[in-house]
Amino acid sequence: MSLIEAVPNVSEGRRRDVVDALAAAVGGVPGATLLDTCSDPAHNRSVFTLVGDAAALKSALLELYAAALARIDLRAHSGVHPRIGAVDVTPFVPLEAAGMPACVALATELGEAVARRFDLPVYLYERAARTPDRRRLELIRRGGFENLGTKMRRPEWRPDFGPAAPHPTGGATAIGARRLLVAFNVNLDSGDLDVARRIARAVRTSDGGLDAVKAIGVRTESPEVVQVSMNLVDFERTPLHEAFEAVRREAARHGVEVLNSEVVGLVPAAALLPAAARALRIDGFNLRRVLDHRLPGRETSPAPPVAPET
Amino acid sequence: MSLIEAVPNVSEGRRRDVVDALAAAVGGVPGATLLDTCSDPAHNRSVFTLVGDAAALKSALLELYAAALARIDLRAHSGVHPRIGAVDVTPFVPLEAAGMPACVALATELGEAVARRFDLPVYLYERAARTPDRRRLELIRRGGFENLGTKMRRPEWRPDFGPAAPHPTGGATAIGARRLLVAFNVNLDSGDLDVARRIARAVRTSDGGLDAVKAIGVRTESPEVVQVSMNLVDFERTPLHEAFEAVRREAARHGVEVLNSEVVGLVPAAALLPAAARALRIDGFNLRRVLDHRLPGRETSPAPPVAPET
Q: Which of A165, A169, B3, B134 has its CA 20 to 30 A from that of B288?
């Protein structure tokens, strides 16, 4: 049995009772362990981190979709993070080498079940995508819930499963399989959203910036500043400290300082350790010098990225 | 079965064939896995890192003592690191919570066996010490091999097991139980040994410096500079980045820069991660935000220090 991580993102980060109810729903299935719940009021979004086997995760996520669709009405939702659904996106991540095919299969199975049970349009993305144009989540999500009805009338945006129109309150959902990524937000000591957006453009891959980095500039509430919100989709190609340094450098060009940073959900040790080695100037450091990664039975997990994502 | 780490330190770091023979001896016992061999020519010392269960580790270490006593003659040994024995010191470290009593029992058992089989004086130290004055390894080792004969004539330095005089070529050995420590050496861009010694005095606990830090100043060969060689015996009380910063600051007072640093043997992730969080300015970071530390069955190991060492 292969250990899989699921990281569903739900469009509710303000109403504590709703987040608690969703956590109870997704965390109540034996064999699927809810490790973490991370809510952001400005994003108005919560990220749950679960691990377990495929069958248990599928059951737990069906509970989550049921609980979220019953409680979240996207017509009344506001937040700075792009989203198309009450359960906006559910990625599955293999925690053991060679687990990707199982994650693709699980994404497909869950997608079919969610569409059938809740009459919800489902887009399969990244490794689970059936066509190349569905790989990138940001394209699926472009336009947001507000423009989803119009977008879905176009044949190229017919969903992989479910009806060809948004669910009235729940929108649509993206379900996929991908490798470990780090959601890493850097807060700037500034209220100027334009600066955050310029920095995001300077560092993200799609505009010629760093390798394997997605970034947007957003306004956040706690603290009340602007933020460069990043996904590092391959932290071996661009480690956290390089992304942090790039944001710091770009911010300095605008006369703005970095306030602090945050990781959303849980972060793999392998993504943080190079930053430590660099700060401590450890000569010839690599992960094989870390005891935890060398203990019998733990050499390969959680699996660091090994090949470029396309 | 509780997983235990053993980190024997042997007084040979130059003759490659001898180090290889010792690694083969200690690494050839089923149930004890040799994870790492780290040799330093200036220290003329090698550190082996093994994990396994108590019975397998005892067998593996008896093989190591036999191989080392057959090949190392301390009368012909030179090196910058303090030492009293061919196998200078063997600590056992519990990798799972509540494993310390098993490590104390294992140290005692191995000590009895080593004394009986090789006619070698054995000092039990730290958690395995039978009297408070035997807790501190540096007191047992003070004076080195060269003064061991004289020292052992004093009743208070009668060994815990074995004869009351040094083994002619193998000296004596210290066997103990302790928590995880980090051997962390900071190289200075200087050849002035006096500066390294002053910095060591400024940062070590015994001279009023940082908490839970042992330090000496030594000359090293690769690179050819001086070094502050530290043991961080409780990296929760003084994390690596604080020790590094203190050395950097003291060095700057002497107009000297830090060149780089090195960890000896393997380092627990929990000792490095706070340095990463600090470098990346991650707000409210703690180990519970690290995926690896939250996976089922891994929550508590390797066990971080939880109580002050005395």
A: B3
pTM here is: 0.84
Give the CA angle between residues A297, A302, A306 to the nearest 5°.
110
CB contacts under 8 A, A 144-173 vs B, are none
List, in order of start, the domains of chain B with CATH numbers: 4-177 (3.30.990.10), 182-294 (3.30.70.670)
pLDDT in tens, A179-229: 999 999 999 999 999 999 999 999 999 999 999 999 999 998 878 899 999
Whether B291 sits inside 8 A of A260 (CB atoms) is no
Closest residue, chain A, to B222 (C-alpha) = A283
Does the distance separating the beta carbons of B282 and A260 come in below 8 Å? yes
What's the angle, vertex CA B151, arms to CA B149 and CA B154, rounded to 5?
Answer: 115
Q: Could you report the predicted ipTM of this complex, rounded to two decimals? A: 0.85
d(CA B43, CA B115): 26
Is A167 one of the catalytic residues?
no
Query: Is B278 in contact with A281 (Cβ distance < 8 A)?
Result: no
Residue A71 reports pLDDT greater than 90: yes
What are the pLDDT digits (tens) for B220-231? 887 889 999 999
Question: Could you give the angle at the alpha carbon of B250 between the alpha carbons of B249 and B252, nearest 5°?
Answer: 65
Q: Which candidate from A244, A263, A292 shows the least CB-CB separation from B292?
A: A292
Catalytic residue, from B43, B81, B241, B254: name it. Answer: B81
| pLDDT exceeds 90 at position A303 | no
Q: Looking at residue A1, what is its pLDDT? A: 57
Contact A239/A287 with Cβ under 8 angstroms? no
CB contact under 8 A, A279 and B279: yes
